[in-house]
Amino acid sequence: MSAIGGVHVKYLLHCPRQLWLYMRGYRPEQRSDAVAYGEAVDDTTYTRRRDIDLGEAKIDWVTTGAVVHETKSSRAPSEQHEAQVRHYCLLLERRGVAVQHGVIHYPLVRRTTTVAWDRQARTLAEDTERQAQAVISQPDAPPRLDRPRCRGCSYIDYCWGDS
């Protein structure tokens, strides 16, 4: 069974095919302007905080009382963002940390979103983790999404390059 981190959750919810390819070493996001932009936002905001490296995942930071914080470069909240934070809460809880909740920071629009951490959130995180494991273990790549949903994806050449 593969260790599941935040990027795996993000890719699963964006496109299961992306997760499958990523787990097999295909990593075009290293050449993506969007990824570079996100890393620049992360590197230049909340600079007093330090990542928490769990091995399979890197949490942007955790404050007193075990509140998980994640910074996003996008301007709008998404289910992917919340799922990542829930996954981080689950990973910390498994290490014996009594997590309170999570907070997603959107510095470009100066907004935050609170992510609950309760029994329902734990169940969602565990289900997402199981879904990711199922995709990873498939012998063949999941089908590609409809092309309009692939706009801006760094994996577009793999999925649509010959079309």
Brief characterization of the structure:
InterPro entries: Dna2/Cas4_DUF83, PDDEXK-like_dom_sf. The protein has 163 residues and is of the alpha+beta class. The chain has helices spanning 6-14, 16-23, 33-44, 79-94, 119-137, 156-160, and strands at 52-53, 58-59, 61-63, 67-71, 101-106, 111-116.
Question: What does it look like?
Answer:
This is CRISPR-associated exonuclease Cas4. By secondary structure, this protein is α+β, with helices and mostly antiparallel strands. Helix content is 42%, strand content 15%. The chain has a 4-stranded mixed beta sheet, with helices on one face. It has a two-stranded antiparallel sheet with strand order 1-2. Strand 1 and strand 2 (58-59) form a beta hairpin. The mean pLDDT is 86.
Features:
163 residues, alpha+beta, Lambda Exonuclease, Chain A, two-stranded antiparallel ribbon, 6 strands, globular, Dna2/Cas4_DUF83, EC 3.1.12.1, hydrolase, exonuclease, exonuclease activity
What class, by secondary structure content? alpha+beta
Order of secondary-structure elements = HHHEEEEHEEHH
Q: What is the CATH third-level topology name?
A: Lambda Exonuclease, Chain A
* Oligomer designation: single chain
Instruction: Please work out how many helical segments DSSP would assign.
Output: 6
Major sheet strand order: 3-4-5-6
Radius of gyration, rounded?
A: 16 Å
Helix content: 40-55%
Q: Largest sheet, if any? A: 4 strands, mixed
Number of domains: 1
Poorly predicted runs: none
CATH class: Alpha Beta
Count of individual beta strands: 6
In percent, how much strand structure appears in the residues? 5-15%
Give the rounded overall mean pLDDT.
86
What overall geometry do the principal axes of the alpha carbons give? globular
| N-C termini distance | 34 Å
> What's the architecture in CATH terms?
Alpha-Beta Complex
Protein name: CRISPR-associated exonuclease Cas4
Organism: Streptosporangium saharense
EC number: 3.1.12.1
GO molecular function: exonuclease activity
